[in-house]
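Budget justification note: compute hours in this period were largely spent on complex prediction jobs such as the one shown. Inputs:
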Amino acid sequence: MAGLKNNSKLKDDLIDKINNLTFLDKEQWKYTNFNYLSNFNFDKNISKNSLSIKKNDSIEVLSINDLNEDSEKNYLKFFNKIIPQENKFILYNTAYFHNGYFFNVNKNIDDAYALIESNITVNSKNNFSNDRIIFNFNKSSKTTILFNEKNTKQIKNNAVYELFLDNNSCVDFIIFSNQPSATKILNLSAKINKDAILNIYTINISGELIKNNYFINLDKQNSKCNFNGIDLLNKKNHIDNYIEVNHNNKNTFSNINYNNILDGYSKGIFYAKTVINENCSQSEALQSNKNMLLSKSSSIHSNPQLIINNDDVQCAHGSTTGEIDSDALFYMQSRGISENKAKKMLINSFLFKIINKMKDKKILSSINNEIDSWINNVD
Amino acid sequence: MLKINKLNVGVDDKNILNNINLEINKGELHVIMGRNGTGKSTLSNIITGKDGYNIGGGEVLYKNKNLLDMSTEDRALEGIFMSFQYPVSIPGLNTMHFLRTSVNSIRKHQNKEEYSSGEFIKVFKEKLAIVGLDESFAKRSVNDGFSGGEKKRFEILQMLLIEPKLVILDETDSGLDIDALRIVANGINNFKSKNNSFLLITHYYRIIEYLNPDFVHVLLDVKIVKSGDQKLALKLEENGYGWLKK
Ligand SMILES: Nc1ncnc2c1ncn2[C@@H]1O[C@H](COP(=O)(O)OP(=O)(O)OP(=O)(O)O)[C@@H](O)[C@H]1O
Ligand SMILES: [Mg+2]
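Corresponding output:
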């Protein structure tokens, strides 16, 4: 047994902490109802083994329930080390997680691949499941991780992912979610070492209530993060994304590109905070958030923030919200493309340009097909 | 082919075109010259169907049909093509995907067989060579990051692929280097036939020399104030517009 799973003393301490937790980042929860979410049950041990994992030999995957002494030692070097502690849902996860996995990616390989799918088959009612996954990407490894979350059930999931990128590793970390009835909380932390690159792709197609928090730490020189996100929302979907990037060393690079399409009565929140600390000269931080509103009743709150504590850096941020570009539409119509088709092509390109650098083109094209079928329902 | 009768166009309270009459027959090439802001692009936009203008009277007939009742895409399907003065860049939209969708929509409408992707690549390469662009453009987004001259060549490429009946060239020669101008002019000359018609908008005599227009019109202060042949363009090149003042 590992971590806090069966350690009741630690668990009790944690629960104490949860109950006494007063700190709450107001800015982060401005538009999403914290109390509503925290009133569900997080301690009911449901949907055990609801994750199916396919992977190749370059990755070792251990269930946290059956670690041996060596692997437990290794795992404890990472568990709960970088994820923020002042967050109720993370603490719940730490106390009650039941789907726990440790992914260890071999060093010096360039083809590591894992596909993670959830297969919950019942509605979750008032109970959240808690998934906890730790990823250790060893030196000079190249990896693609794909979460393929497709489900029409009313699932409730509170996930925590902890990512460690050792020197010169490169990761495409793809979270694809198409779960119209899901209530989902994700907290993801990453620690990126020297010359390592983390490319995050998060694609959210619908969702009843989704709250994603990302904490990216560029800890060593020449570490990079490209954060690419798209949300396709309609009906009463609500997606709230908070992205925090900390530049903690020289020559570090971050680039956030997040585009949203909003239809119906949906609501999106984009809040990014990139902090360049004092000792981080020659760093570069970019943020872009573009939103296309397809209906009058949809709305987006965009708040791209840069906090810069060093003069020798390059930064840019911007946010735009608008309708479909009418000049582009006219251009395409003047080439014989119908208005409806042109609109769909424009929506697709608005989204596709965010994800098209994904290395695995097969995954890219299947995601693009899902995007297209969503777009085909737009009128 | 195209017949414009007593056309008046405005935006908000502003009068942009007044009492425009113009007839372009099959096989003819007409040129419109005129100072900046006199309504040349507005006229092109009216013919292609851009909205946002008030039509204050008059009619525009294309193949004897009322053009003003048709949607932009229907006009394109029926053979009208405009090379934009300012082509629009569309980041994320792949050039090949855009071109094939456009060309196949039009071919389908004309009961021609749609190109398969293999066939299209062949035609694409052939036309690409005519306008002197290299094959890497196939992988790029529409007009995204194209230089001014590349955008104009890309417009001509589309004209060659679409094979329209009525072509409007809105300052296609502006911003082209000397070689590119010759390439583009040759492309136009090769495509020009007795079955299609052209309306060229330009500020320069050089392209006119290459294309040998049938008519040259001068648009000044909302009106066509003078029409003539190629010699009129030469006179404007030498003397400017001052002498035409009413
Ligand atoms: N949507 C609009 N709103 C307000 N004014 C407009 C609009 N469209 C055109 N105009 C005005 O109408 C006039 C004619 O514009 P147009 O673009 O047709 O000129 P042009 O002859 O093509 O000029 P150029 O040689 O510079 O390309 C200009 O004064 C322009 O500012
Ligand atoms: Mg103009």
